[in-house]
Amino acid sequence: MIRRVLINLIENSVKYTPNEGAVSVLAQEENNQVIVSIQDNGPGIPETERARVFEKFMRIRREGGPKGLGLGLAFVKMAIEAHGGKVWVDPAQPHGAIFKFSLPVKN
Q1: Which residue numbers in the chain have pLDDT < 70?
Q2: Is the peptide bond before 91 cis (omega within 30 degrees of 0)?
Q3: Strand 33-40 to 86-91 pairing
Q4: Other C-beta atoms lying within 10 Å of the C-beta of residue 16
Q5: What is the Cα–Cα distance from 24 to 96, expressed in whole angstroms?
Q6: Does domain 2-104 sit in CATH 3.30.565.10?
Q7: What is the dihedral of CA 62, 63, 65, 68, to 10 degrees?
Q8: Which helix (H) or strand (E) holds 12?
């Protein structure tokens, strides 16, 4: 499931990033958690929509934006939480989004 989570988040970042943009993936261990970040420099997600993007069928409407059902991020949230983790989105500077998720490290 985590493989599918990564695919969904990376595909979303690529989909919303302009041709001359960039997508980066970072993983680090912090306080017995693995934190994975996928950052893009696309249009970003308004602060008022950040919590809602993980709801089923939620889509941010943009002129000429990609199409979809609004299920990918809902799946991401369910899968991460099923593994005991958390998922969230932060703004990237100067624009874009950073999707992050944490998973507990098992010894």
Answers
A1: 57-70, 107
A2: no
A3: unpaired
A4: 21
A5: 12
A6: yes
A7: 70
A8: helix 2-16
d(CA 62, CA 69): 14
Coil vs helix vs strand at 48: helix
In the numeric block, the tokens 């709801």 are attached to: 55
Which tens digit of pLDDT belongs to each residue from 62-86? 665 555 656 789 999 999 999 999 9
pTM: 0.86
The three-state secondary structure class of 26 is strand
Scanning the structure block, which residue is given the tokens 């499931």? 1
Domain boundaries, the chain: 2-104
Strands annotated E in the chain? 23-30, 33-40, 86-91, 97-104
